[in-house]
């Protein structure tokens, strides 16, 4: 098992339970069988396999984080499409940072939910720990979202203190 300096956070089980009923846009969830595989699953942070039952739902990661922390992200409260398993899954089976073989953006947010900037990260696994360290070197950064460049979709978040051995 590969270890990293930071922990990618999948969508939390309580949120997944809600999303498997209705998404953050209020639409009922419509599971389907993934015939080809390859969908980036945000529940277990891996790509789907052909034949798995998945769902594409609208998810508002900053809104859900703000509800836990009391932040008020205002206009930065966006929602977008994410794939999840249609039923419970075991979550990630590795602590390696996922989805690092493509260009990504690392978007920084303050504790009050305001965007503090972002950075394009080249699509090599070795580039991600440096980008996260760079983000958290700014004491105003509370969390980062790692997002797909091609569609802008949320992939996962990393929170301050998620370093191995951190708080």
Q: Can you tell me about this structure?
A:
With 167 residues, the protein is α+β, with helices and mostly antiparallel strands. The protein has helices at residues 13-19, 61-69, 127-136; strands spanning 32-33, 40-41, 46-47, 53-59, 80-85, 104-110, 115-121, 141-148, 154-159. Strands 7-6-8-9 form a four-stranded antiparallel beta sheet, covered by helices on one side. A hairpin with a 4-residue loop joins β6 and β7 (115-121). The longest helix has 10 residues, at 127-136. The mean pLDDT is 92.
Roughly what fraction of the amino acids lie in strands? 25-35%
Structural class by secondary-structure content? alpha+beta
> Helicity, in percent?
10-25%
Instruction: Enumerate the strands of the largest sheet in spatial order, edge to edge or round the barrel.
Output: 7-6-8-9
Our measurement of the CA-to-CA distance between the termini, rounded to an integer number of angstroms, reads 22 Å
Question: What's the story with the biggest beta sheet?
Answer: 4 strands, antiparallel
Broad shape: globular
User: Which consecutive residue ranges, at least 5 long each, have pLDDT under 50?
Assistant: none
Q: How would you classify the quaternary structure? A: single chain
**How many DSSP helices?**
3
Mean pLDDT: 92
Number of strands: 9
Radius of gyration: 15 Å
Taken in chain order, the helices and strands follow as HEEEEHEEEHEE
Features:
four-stranded antiparallel β-sheet, globular, 3 helices, single chain, alpha+beta, 9 strands, 167 residues, three-stranded antiparallel β-sheet
């Amino acid at each position: 098992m590969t270890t990293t300096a930071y922990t990618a956070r999948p969508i939390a089980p309580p949120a997944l339970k809600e999303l498997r009923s209705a998404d953050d846009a209020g639409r009922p969830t419509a599971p389907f069988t993934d015939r080809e595989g390859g969908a980036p699953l945000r529940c277990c942070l891996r790509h789907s396999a052909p034949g798995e039952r998945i769902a594409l739902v609208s998810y508002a990661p900053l809104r859900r984080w703000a509800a836990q922390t009391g932040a008020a992200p205002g206009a930065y409260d966006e929602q977008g499409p994410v794939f999840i398993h249609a039923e419970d899954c075991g979550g990630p089976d590795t602590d390696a940072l996922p989805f690092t073989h493509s260009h990504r953006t690392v978007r920084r947010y303050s504790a009050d939910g305001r965007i503090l900037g972002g950075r394009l990260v080249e699509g090599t696994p070795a580039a991600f720990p440096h980008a996260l360290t760079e983000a958290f070197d700014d004491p105003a950064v509370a969390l980062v979202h790692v997002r797909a460049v091609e569609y802008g979709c949320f992939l996962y978040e990393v929170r301050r203190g998620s370093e191995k051995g951190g708080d």
